[in-house]
Amino acid sequence: MTIPMNFIYGREEHNLHWKYIPQPYFRRKFKVRSGLVAASLTIGALGYYEVHLNGENITRGELASYRANPDHYIYFDYYDITDTLKKGDNILASVLGNGMQNTVVKIWGGWNFPWRSSAALSFNIELKYSDGTVERVISDENTLWADSPITFNDYYFGEHYDARLEQPGWDTLDFDDSSWQKANPRLPTRGEARICEAPPVLKYEERKPVSITEYKGGYIYDFGLNGAGLTRLHINGTPGQKVTTKHFEVMVDGAPYYDNICYKGCERMQEDEYICAGGEATHMPKFTYHGFRYVYVTGITPEQATPELLTYVVMHSDVPMRGSFKCDNETINKIQEMTVRSDLSNLIHIPTDSPHRERNGWTADAALSAEQMLFNLTPEKLWKEWIRNVYRSMNGDGMIPGIIPTADWGYEDFNGPCWDCVLVYIPYYAYMYRGDIDMLRESAAPLMRYIHYLYSIIREDELIEAPGGLGDWAQVGRPSGRAFKTPVVVTDSILSVDIADKAAQIFDVLGMSEQAEFARGLIKRLLKGIKFNLIDHEKGMIVGNTQTSQALALYYGIVEGEEKQKVLDHLLELIEKDNEHFNVGVIGGRVLFRVLCDNGYADLAFKMIVRPDFPSYGNLVERGATTLWEFFDPVGGKIDSLNHHFWGHISAFFYQYFAGIRVNPNFTDISNVDIKPVFAEGLNHVTAEHELLQGKLSVEIAREGECGTITITCPDSVHGEIKLPSGWCFEDGADTTPLKSGSYKFVK
């Protein structure tokens, strides 16, 4: 499909910190004659748009269209409008938001984006008639514009709306637009036009406050759960009354806490303003969203401070649930709930890191959460669009930035193999769990470029340490500055082995044997360097002497045989030294509990997860968290993001180990599913469901003492085996049986 790009704008000025520019309305009248058989609308914005046709809002979702670097891709949405049009005059109307096109945020390169300008609109209406003729109506100087009541809009800061400036009926045919101006044509854009294939952002849930507390001339609304979305205001106000709502995550010492969401120069993050026209009104911002549990509202009277004043409207991309996990341990259940809530909060078009402070597409966050999102949700279409942007962001060397989309921020810093692994993890797991061969094919060329890049930075000692690269982020105890307890050369070198290994498997599936051999050549060099430089073979100690370094070497097959046992023994010594607490960052955290369970220490892994004291997941539950935090910090410690999903890899661990669900374990057969649970003391009843490509799989495990039952329902088209942990057997004495629906008793 050819997508005409005829961008138009209203005001030429764009937002500055000291000067706010209102958002534009657009109107375009057009005629439809007799014999119409089909009609379509293709529309996109440099920024965000909302589109109305004959007075009806037909926009496919919130924050349309897709968020991207407009020098790479410019996204359009396609609408079939055949049944919405009428014979004679019709009116297309739209209002714009700034999005990434025009932000006043200074950090992450936002204020210096090379494409920065006022928001702009492009549309193409195609009318097909029974006589074979086709007519087109496009965005041009025949489109009219005027200022809207949105007096300020910023993707991060929030939105200001002055209801006194409303123009009732602005989107209807009989509205008097004689005072409106002709739109201005914009210079050609650099990006490639694309129809957005990602799912829309939708409104999913409404929450009422659980408490309202008076505070310093205003009121704090507590909605009980952290999340992402907007507040809808319903007020009977007086003319000129200004209501301000500030959104935040946590109270500290009885006061709103903003430091974890406001960087220097961003003091007004997540703040909306509404000026009343007088009388009863309902309003919700259009072109921003917030991450929050609490709202501090000022400018209202005591009589207006009712539960009906504010409603929390939860928003996220359309990624329906695919799985569920429950057990007889409420701490585990809470962690599972927190993971899903954190995931949904961070799926707004792209996989973000947090829904409040950054909303950036951090690469490692998406990579670390890949499996758990596939177990719980349906993220593939969202991933597919975003990963194209990841590939497009590669520079001439094959390097990608730490966040996507971006302009030029994060290439020389805040990236490296531990973050870049998203290049292979997203297509790899999409194929493993969903058989998505198309995503594999799209990944092949970028993966080869990246393997070339890794070859180019491998050192003489056959190790990799990317300049400025990130390592085991969010380490318990927070080393000062950018220091990592586990040296970056360890995490970069071992993760590069994993990247090359997964790339080789992808090339095998695609029949690209020479490319697979090229990737495996890198593995051989890295293993040589790691074994010679990073391992104390006598002590079984990996350089860094951390839980992360030990667990990575075990999980990724760096050590074998007797040496593997030495490395495991030293890991156990480190855990004992830490009083059976985990002491890792997100890179080590993803593999630590798997390593313990794979080697017969499921009881220890379970204890480390659920214990109520710091640091642990159980400690987050104990302290009332409703979403996962970026850092495990003690009471009284520094507060950062309280809604991060990358620690949610623990949910995939629940499915894979406590419920035993292993989908396509050899990466060669999507119809192969094994059930291989581990049993942990204190965990006796587990139920899990997961929608496989072939249909629903459900597993229920119930243990009591030295006997139990495992009940499975699975599609007939899947095959595999049910394997019990060491020391347990089925009634026939075997520890393994073919996978089929049924109920199986087992004993110790």
Question: What would a concise description of this structure say?
Answer:
The protein contains 15 helices and 39 strands. It is α+β, with helices and mostly antiparallel strands and 748 residues long. The strands form ten sheets. Strands 11, 12, 16, 17, 18, 19, 22, 23, 24 and 25 form a ten-stranded mixed β-sheet that branches. A six-stranded antiparallel β-sheet has the order 5-4-7-2-10-13, with no helix packed on it.
Structure description:
This protein is of the alpha+beta class. The protein has four domains: 191 residues, Galactose-binding domain-like (Jelly Rolls, Sandwich), CATH 2.60.120; 115 residues, Sandwich (Jelly Rolls); 311 residues, Glycosyltransferase, CATH 1.50.10; 75 residues, Maltose phosphorylase, domain 3 (Sandwich), CATH 2.60.420.10. Strand 20 and strand 21 form a beta hairpin. The protein is globular, with a radius of gyration of 28 Å. It starts with 7 loop residues before the first strand and ends with a strand.
